[in-house]
Structure formats: structure tokens, C-alpha cells
Amino acid sequence: MEKRVVYTAATIAAVACVVAVIVIRKRSKGIKWGKVKEMFKEIESKCALPIERLKQIASAMETEMHAGLASDGGSKLKMLLSYVDRLPTGGEEGLFYALDLGGTNFRVLRVQLGGKEGGVVRQEYQEVSIPPHLMVGSSHDLFDFIAEALSSFVASEGEEYKVPEGKQRELGFTFSFPVKQLSLSSGTLIKWTKGFCIEETVGEDVVAELTKAMERQGLDMKVTALVNDTVGTLVGGRYEDGDVMAGVILGTGSNAAYVERASSIPKWHDELPKSGEMVINMEWGNFKSPLLPVTEFDEALDFESLNPGEQIYEKLISGMYLGEVVRRVLLKISEEFPIFGDIVPPKLESPFILRTPQMSGIHHDSSPDLKVVAKKLKETLGIHNTSIKTRKFVVDVCDMVAKRAARLAAAGIYAIIKKIGRDTLSDDKQRTVIAIDGGLFEHYTAFSDCLERTLRELLGEEVANSVVIKHANDGSGIGAALIAASHSN
Ligand code: ADP
Ligand code: MG
Known about the structure:
Elements: H1 2-29, H2 33-47, H3 51-70, E1 80-81, E2 93-101, E3 105-114, H4 115-118, E4 120-129, H5 132-135, H6 139-155, E5 169-175, E6 179-183, E7 186-189, H7 206-216, E8 221-227, H8 229-240, E9 244-250, E10 254-261, E11 277-281, H9 296-303, H10 312-317, H11 319-336, H12 356-363, H13 371-381, H14 388-419, E12 432-437, H15 439-443, H16 445-459, H17 461-464, E13 467-471, H18 475-486
Helix pairs in contact: 3-14, 6-7, 8-18, 11-12, 11-14, 12-13, 12-14, 14-16
The chain binds adenosine-5'-diphosphate and magnesium ion.
Pathway: Carbohydrate metabolism; hexose metabolism; Carbohydrate degradation; glycolysis; D-glyceraldehyde 3-phosphate and glycerone phosphate from D-glucose: step 1/4
Transmembrane segments: 6-24
Keywords: ATP-binding, Glycolysis, Kinase, Membrane, Nucleotide-binding, Transferase, Transmembrane, Transmembrane helix
């Protein structure tokens, strides 16, 4: 009797196996790849950015740049005055600290500058990740957390650093959010972006907030300069290379700063700086134009975001969003066609589950059977047993989203180059260097390669030879310290 039961169970199992194989066969046969490709082509055509369209986008951005420089509120582009009118000369000297609050991490840094001969004598930094609940909690808690980390970093300062007797330590504060600067060392928060949302900080002077938190920690330090990360990147880049004219961030978010002639800033009413120059923080993430290739996926992403209607350009090009756009495209297609099996993988429905680093891992997979893609799909989205065809298709979706982003970012850089008149060849063949920083640019090679190729295409070969893109690794922290140094008393 017992034997019979076992036999029956085994039979059932065997039959189930055969049925399963047939179902799997049928399922993969059930994908009408022709139709899938058709749907993909349609989305791709909406994301397409031929060079002429990119040039129009760059012109539209340039127009907005003029409008933003003419008056406050004149444009979606805030074109914020940075009050940085002295770029480093190399003569900066002393011990300086910097604090860099970005999208996901913040860094504390100390640097000993040795003047003309010495350069950066030594530097150390520490990176701390920001607990997500602090990004949407209270101002007090966020700044306390930062001041505490800074305080313990200062406590670890070695004997080899030289604090001049009787002098307060000084700090350059890199704050990567839109700020209405009131002076070099003060500014009020216009709005949070990226994943931050703490209502009570908006309109407050972030230097005062930090200073109060430092006092609560018993930390005696002066905030000499408040700088945007783009400005820090530009300045850090300029210290290394005298031809750096702009700093661009392509990380969690995206933004750019560049050196403008003070006489080209109508909204600047004070006395013109001696240098005749002023660094402008564009806040280009908020650029918007009907020319931008915004699809239904971007609209839905924007609608559900913390800041609907805002930062549209940033949502198309920066690291916080690219993986999420890919997820939305894959979700839509898998609802129409069984590319991942008969049911839509439940994890694919959860927002922000596919992050940009995973997307770039997928995109960069060069193994013949795309096993990295298979692994990422399994680990991130719980999608098992993918065919090579499906994996290849997922790579194509990443490629489409990354390419659109990289080409749009190149158009932004081209707009700056045009605005400062470096889009034609000068008699003295002046070099123009753009310093770029951020995890997206640094790690996503398919993205950064495409950006550089597109910029060459926009400039034309001859001019392109005089324009250099430089990866400024962590330039923004050093830049903030340098600004503190050159404006120190
Ligand atoms: P932040 O923008 O917070 O100042 P980073 O400049 O280091 O910090 O950028 C981090 C961002 O860069 C991440 O949020 C992510 O979007 C992107 N990123 C990091 N690593 C990779 C990677 N391997 N591939 C693609 N994007 C990456
Ligand atoms: Mg950063």
C-alpha cells in the first residue's frame, strides 16, 4: 500500500515536470519578439536625439541662461551668484577643512596647503552615509548628525597639521542644493532636491544651521565659504589646470557652474569684482523645454516624485533616476508581453528597486551569455531563468536610457561652451577645460564615453580638439577648502 503511494507521487512529480517543461517552452515561444521590438522602437523614437535637436536644446538652454542672468526669477534656470570672484592662484596656504553634503553621502576633509611651492601638502577625508530617515526628518537632527561626524573627524587631526596659534579652524561648506547666496559665507535654502525633503530648512540660512549644530557639539570652527558642489569642482579643477572654465556634477543629481564675465550679469548690481569674473551656479537640473524628449515614463516618474514639475532635466540625466526609468520601461513591456514569464515580476513594480549602479552593471556586461545581466535580474528583481534574448533586450533598454541622458548632458555642456564663446576656434587656440565629477560620470563608462563622443560631434572635430573633459575626482571638497583659503582672513 505504502509503496503504491510513493509510486503515485513519483508519477505525479514526473508528469508535473513534463508539463512544466512544455509550459516553459510554450511561454518562451509565446514571446512575440517582433512585437516587443516594435514597442521598443516606438519608445526609442521618442527618446531619440539627433544632433540638430541637441543643438536646438543647447540654444534653448543658452536663452534661459541669459534670462536667468538678467533677473531673479527670469528663468527656470536660477543662474545663482556664487560670490566666488577670485579663483585659486596656487598661493593658498594653511590648514583648512571642508564638508561636502551631496545626495547620498557626505564627506569631511582636511587639507594642508603649502603655498606656491608646496601645493597640497597632505589631505585626509572620511565619508559618511546619511541615514535615509534624516533626509526627510528635522533640520536639527540632520545638522546635528553632520556636526557630530565633523567633530569626531576634527578630533582625529594629527600633529602634522599646523593650526596657526590663536586662530580658529576654517571650513568650506559644499552644499549641493539650490541656495540663494547672500554672501560668500551665507545663503538660504531655496528648495531641497534629490531624496531630501525637510520643509523647515527651506528659507533658512544653512550656514547658520550648521554653525548652531557645531556649537551644540562644542566645535570651534568658522564657516568661511558656502559653495555649491559644482563651484567646488570648478575651483578644485582650476587649482590643477588654469584653463578650467566650468564644473559639472553628474552624480545622484546633476548641475553645472561656470566662469562668467561680471559685466554679462545684469542682475549683479554691486560693484564689479576686480577680477571682472564671477562663478555662476546654473542649477541646470531645473532646465525644462518642450524640446526635451520627455516620455510617458518620465511623466509618471515626475508625477510620483518628491518634487513634481521640477528638476525635469535632472530627472532625465542623473544617477538618481536612470535606473528607475529603465524599471518603468521594462514594467510596461512586461505587462504587454511575457518577456519575464507569464506574470509580471512583482518586484519590478516597486519604485526605485533598480538603481543606476545595477543598471550600469547590466549595461557593461561583456560576457558572451550575459551572465551578469542574468545575475542582476535575479538578485535585484527576482527574475529567474532568463533567455539570452531577454537579457540582450534588457541591455538595449539600458542603452537607450543611458544614451539619451549622456547626449542631453553633452548638450548642456555645449550650451556653456557657447555662452562663453569657446565654440569657435580662437587665434591663440585657447584650451577650454570642463571639470566633471560625480559617481555617474566616474563609474558609468558607457554613459561618459557617449557624453564625450556627443560633445565632439556638437563642437565639430577642430574645435573639439581644444576642449578637454577632465574627471575631477572629489574636486568639490578640495575646491571648498581652497575657496575658504583664498577668502580667509
Ligand atoms: P553624490 O551625488 O551623492 O554627491 P556621487 O557623486 O558619489 O555622490 O554620486 C553617487 C551617484 O552616482 C549614485 O547615486 C549613483 O546614481 C551614481 N553611481 C554610483 N556608482 C555608479 C555606477 N557604478 N554606475 C552608475 N552610476 C553610479
Ligand atoms: Mg557630490
